[in-house]
Amino acid sequence: SVKIFNTLSEKPLQTFYPPSKHLSTCAVSAAAWSPARACVFAVAMEMGGIYVYDLLKSKQEPVLELPLSGGSQRITSLMFNPKMFRLLAAGDEAGRVRVFRLPFTLSKLHKTEMDVVSRMMGGSSKHE
Questions:
Q1: Is the Cβ–Cβ distance between 88 and 42 less than 8 Å?
Q2: Quick one: how far is CA 83 from the chain centroid?
Q3: Cα 113 from Cα 97, distance rounded (Å)
Q4: Is the pLDDT of residue 55 over 80?
Q5: Order of all β-strands in the sheet with 87-92
Q6: Amino acid 121: pLDDT
Q7: Per-residue pLDDT tens over the stretch 76-88
Q8: Under DSSP, is residue 105 helix (H, G, I), strand (E, B) or coil?
Q9: CB of 44 closer than 8 Å to CB of 89
Q10: In what order do the strands lie in the sheet with 64-66?
Q11: Rama region for 35: left / alpha / beta (φ>0; ψ in -120 to 50; rest)
């Protein structure tokens, strides 16, 4: 699972679980937060699979699963491109890097996005 914490608290603010039961006890091998969208992050699971979450769309389920094929190795690093926001790179333990082009909706900032993050962190929103 992936847990989001406020550094001032020991209790997680939110916990995210992988979408399939066989991954529920699997460790997270890499994670990255989008530089373009405050509500988007990607998670790689040790037993396979890269999942992209968008907190505006779902508080629990990933909105996208990226395909890993061709004798995939365990993903050890994830990184969103800081200039071309639609690109997500995934490096594996064999030293290969795959670059995925994400849908436009996962890289375009929404007006209410920071309010969602503020509420999740226990703050209040301008639009409440």
A1: yes
A2: 18
A3: 30
A4: yes
A5: 75-80, 87-92, 97-101
A6: 72
A7: 999 999 999 999 9
A8: helix
A9: no
A10: 28-33, 40-45, 50-54, 64-66
A11: alpha
Judge contact between 37 and 54, C-beta under 8 A: yes
Dihedral (CA of 57, 37, 33, 70) sign: positive
Kindly tell me the number of DSSP H helices and DSSP E strands found in the chain.
1, 9
- What gap in Å lies between CA 15 and CA 3, rounded to an integer? 4
Determine the residue type at 3.
K
Q: How far apart are CA 74 and CA 19, in angstroms?
A: 18
pLDDT digits (tens, 9 = 90+) for 108-119: 888 888 887 777
Asked if pLDDT for residue 71 goes beyond 70, the answer is no
Nearest Cα residue to 66 out of 81, 85, 49: 49
The confidence band for 127, taking pLDDT boundaries of 50, 70 and 90, is very low
Calpha distance 70→36 (Å, rounded): 30
Is the pLDDT at 2 greater than 90, yes or no? no
What is the 3-class SS of 44-102, one letter each residue?
EECCCCEEEEECCCCCCCCCEEECCCCCCCCEEEEEECCCCCCEEEEEECCCCEEEEEC
